[in-house]
Structures are given as structure tokens and as C-alpha cells.
Amino acid sequence: MIQYSSRTALRSYSEQQDYTAGRNAEPISRSQTLVYYIEGNKFWIKQTTKRERREFLQRFIRRIDYKLLPPLPNTVTEIILGDATAPGREVELELVDDASGTLPVLNTPLRCKLREDPLSVAYPSCEEFPCFRQINHKDLAGATEIALGVFYVYHRKKRYVLKTVDRPLYRRHDTEVFRNEVANLDYFAGVPNIVQAVGITVLTNPYKSFDWDDGLPLVVTGVLLEAYPGGTLQQILSERRVAEYRWKQWAIQIGAALNRFHETKKTHMDVKPSNIVLDANGNAVLIDISGMGGITHEWCIPEVQKTIAPCDLPFEQRQQNDIWAYGKLLSEIASQISDDPYVETLRQVADGLMERDPQKRISISMAIAQLESV
């Protein structure tokens, strides 16, 4: 019988707390991620169990004979103990001898559930985005975090913005948000006043199991965007420096960008000052264009603020949300200008966009026409 050499390497550990219990209550479940190496191959595994001590859990998972499971290739395999209602394929675990003698001897078969870890990162295949230039993720340097999953990076000595698939508090929905943003970046390539992509960043699948398997397509780890050096409109408003810029053009530029969305039955759904940046010439550029990445409560139309899933609303309601937020944005800009006749028109347009009665609200096209007529 062939003997295969194998080893395990512990990685991340996590606990699920019961927030209705007391401060010192035990976690309701504990999870330990490890990598199982055998004959040059590797498998990512997450062991989840109910209310076991961390040290006990780590000793226990080293005793599992993973050759007999077997783990799922090219992903993270979750092994669930102590929860018969959990989804997954039921299998019987076999344990190797405990050299330390600290774990109890089991006289009955130990059964568990086996499934792909729903919290593991789902990296899209690069084949999904054939129109994008592929950039090796390892060629990026000097990463500086701007926000969760967003970084300034350098590629060939030029600065860009990198938005990654993996991020803190990742959920599988985040991959769909990423896909939607990349699709919109492709759709609006070359359109003025909308953020532009440089390419997608790619790597070998981080969960790749078999070194000999060269047939796996590269996976997408992120999207590389142009970096706009003028900062965000939020920064300019906070520092009360609107008057230092050519601010009159912003209203028309932002409105034109939103109109391009609405002409194609797409919406932004998170129009706010931090999602407007300025390029080197002071022009306004709309960013964060997935259309489903999340909302900001105070920048939502009143009739949408209590909706559980605003991004799932019909197009007409989502469009009204963009229109109202656009009006609020113009109102914020106007609030910092006092000695220019144009500002009165800007306020009137903002009020028309923010009418409480949707039937009385003006459209973005009407707003642009009024602004251009002055």
C-alpha cells in the first residue's frame, strides 16, 4: 500500500458570537481554517464546530485523516461537526492516533457535513471579461488602503486605484457587486465624467489544489482604475473650498454622467459627494458605479429610505432616487457660494429635483437645460 506524506498548516481562526447572551458567554460556534498538503497538492479546509474550546478544536482537526474525505479541489472545504441540520454531504470522519494523549478515544463513528465554504472568496474567471487588459496582481506595488477593499497602488511607476474582490467582512454577494461594476466599466468605457478602468488584475487561483493542473484559468483579484488627483467633492465641501474651483461645470458634468446611466436603464444608487472625484483639470467624475454595492441612508429619497433592498426596486423608482440625490448634491454645492448670480439658478434646479411629490420633480435633462441656459 502506497504511503503518502502529508501535513497541515493552521491559518485563520474565527468565532460566531451570540449577541443576545452575556458578555462572557462562550461562542456558539468556532471555525479554524487550515491548508492540507499532500504529495505537492494542497486543499483549503475550514472546520466548524459547536462550542468547543479553541485549543481542543485545533488539536482535533490535526487528527482528521483528510485523505479519506476527500476535500473539494480548488476551493475551501467546510467540515461541520455537531449540527445535523446543516446543509452538505454527510460523511464519516476517521482520525489518526493522538500522540499527545490529550484527546478522548472515540468508540462510535464520527459523522459530519461536508460542503464548499459559503464564506470563501468566489474569484471570477478572467474569461468572463475578455475585453479587459490583464495585469498580473504581483506586478502591483506600494499598496495604500483608501477604504475597505480599495487601495492606491503603483504599476510601472504610475499610480492607480485598485478595487479588490476579497475584502474585510466579505460575502459572496460582494463578487456579484464586483461583476456588475466591471460590466458597467466596460459599458461606459470612454464616456466622459464616468470613472475609467485600466484593466483587471489576475492571479492563479489562490485555492488551487494541484500543481500539475495547468488548465485552470486565471482568476480576477481586482479591477485597476484611473486615479483622479483632484480628491473627492466630499473633501472640498468639508474644507469649504468650492469657490476655489470651476464649480459651475460640476452640476452639468454630474448630470450628464447620470443621464448616460438612465438612458441605458441603469442607475447609480449611491450618488453622494464622496463618489464624485476631480480629475487633473478639475472636471467632475462619477465613481463607484456597480449600481448595487450599497446605499447611504441620508442620500436616499424619502420614499426609499425605509426600503429593505433599494437596489432591487423597479428602474423608475431607482431613477427617482438618483434624481433626488443629484438635487441634494447641487444644494450642497450652492450652500457654499454666496456672491455669484448663477447660484440662484443652481438652488432653483436643486429644489426642482428634490420636490417631495415625484410627479412635480424635474428630470435631469430638464435640470441640465436650465443650467446651460444661464
Task: Please describe the structure with a list of short key phrases separated by commas or semicolons.
Phosphorylase Kinase, domain 1, 3 domains, six-stranded mixed sheet, 7 helices, 14 strands, 24% helix, protein serine/threonine kinase activity, transferase
Description:
Keywords: ATP-binding, Kinase, Nucleotide-binding, Transferase. Residues 137-374 form the Protein kinase domain. This is Protein kinase domain-containing protein. GO terms for molecular function: ATP binding; protein serine/threonine kinase activity. The mean pLDDT is 90. This protein has 7 helices and 14 strands. The chain folds into 3 domains: 6-116, no CATH class; 121-227, Phosphorylase Kinase, domain 1; 230-373, Transferase(Phosphotransferase) domain 1 (Transferase(Phosphotransferase), domain 1), CATH 1.10.510.10. Helix content is 24%, strand content 24%. It has helices at residues 54-63, 172-187, 233-238, 248-263, 315-334, 342-353, 364-372, and strands at residues 6-16, 29-38, 41-49, 76-80, 89-93, 110-116, 134-136, 141-147, 150-155, 158-164, 197-203, 219-226, 276-278, 284-286. With 374 residues, it is an alpha+beta fold.
